[in-house]
Protein 1
Amino acid sequence: MEKERTALLVAKEAQVELECERSRLLSEFIQSASHDLSTPLSIINTSVAVVERARDEQTRLRHVSTIKQTAQVLQTILERMFFIVKLESMVDTDRQPLILSSLVDTLLVSHAERAAQQQIQLSGEGIAGLPEISGHPAQMLRALQEILRNALQHTEPGGRVTVSGQVEAAQVVITITDTGSGISAEHIPRVFDRFYRVEQYRPLEDAHTGLGLSIAKKVIELHGGTITLDSAIQQGTTVKITLPVTPPG
């Protein structure tokens, strides 16, 4: 009887700790979200006030453009927040066969124009013949897109971004490597944290919300995989994703 009471007490304590942790994470999320939403809202309000007072057409058009651009950034932030919430409710029963080679091909094609505009060489290596995994195609594509967008965003014209794949034992490894500006060692442990930015004062028009890599990490972990990042200032960044291969039969 005493053992049952002890076990019940331990279970209750564990539940309380879990709820406290959930409450802490929710509080941090709301605090960070409020901070990130306040900047674009402030810009919109200021621009609206200028438009209302402006007498010349050029000034009005310039600030209307600012409003539209900032509203798009706001939409991006909100969409990513909603996506994270959606990920929290995903279940394994939603999984289906996922052909990684086709998924990576789609990824490369969809970002080819942007890479060309930025004068960045975007290429794939070892993609053909990548094995099948079990997963969520749309979510996995989204994770890879977030990482690739981040790579393109931090690579200068004339640089390279390479997406490569290989099989190691019962795992498939996808790496996205860039020759960009890189990240200093003190930032690397936090790059997957929600709302964390290496460049705290990056221009708003870049729509750099600090949610992209955290979205990617959550999706990869939902697929039973791992994601790591290795980087150095002015030496580029490599993001490595490891996923379990679907067993034959």
Protein 2
Amino acid sequence: MNNFKHILFLINPVSGSAKSNCIEILEQIKPKDYHFEYLVWKEANEKDQLIRDINLSEAEVLVAVGGDGTINFLAELVLRKDKVLGIIPSGSGNGLARHLKIPLDKKKAIKRLLISEVKQIDVASVNGNYFLCTAGVGFDALIGKEFAKRDSTGFWGYVKKVINRVFNYTPEIYRLKFGHSVIEKEAYMITFANASQYGNNAFIAPQASVKDGKLNICIMKPFPLIMALPIAFRLFTKSLDKSKYLETLTLSEISIDRNPGPVHLDGDPYEMNGSLNIKILPKKIKVIY
């Protein structure tokens, strides 16, 4: 059981497909000797104010009530202030929470938070920008960019975006540099996996671990459209790593040259230049789970 008593919850009520009732649940089960603070993330442009408010707090634990993007936002503050990260999953995919086996039911997740031990897990970065679950370039980064427009949310909103794009996406050429090797690959997408899945039990890297000091670099090769459904089936049955269209490298660092464009970090899109440096930071962040 952890000894933390001062906890700040950052609640993202628009994360995922439903409003959060986290505050009501917290007040129902809150032990008397705990001090809880709440911040509600109402608008995307509130980041600077949220950072100021969080920096003023003396909370020992910062808890993301939201999806992987909310976790990502808090993680940088946790790292900077040497605090502890907590997770109450309330997002569209909840990739990291699922990987860490945190209950998706809020009440169960809160109860787990109050009794679980602190563990250290790996963090990864792309050009100095952190991610905890997955990052990527190519098709999934483009979908992340379009999904962020918020005209559709949730799992089926994501599926709709994928179907609309999968039939007209052109694979790109990537130049990969790692160790003493330099290779060129034509790829549909390249995913950098610290954890095993994107979310919704879509396992891009079934063997990935957040505690091994390595990244799984998942290179999806061009495939005939007739194979789209079998590949999707493998994605949701933890067998994509067995497909001949997926090549996986296990590395602590890799550099990639490609055309400038979108990169997703834990599902959130960013525009980056053509040169990317991706690396793992072993046991960098403290998480309660």
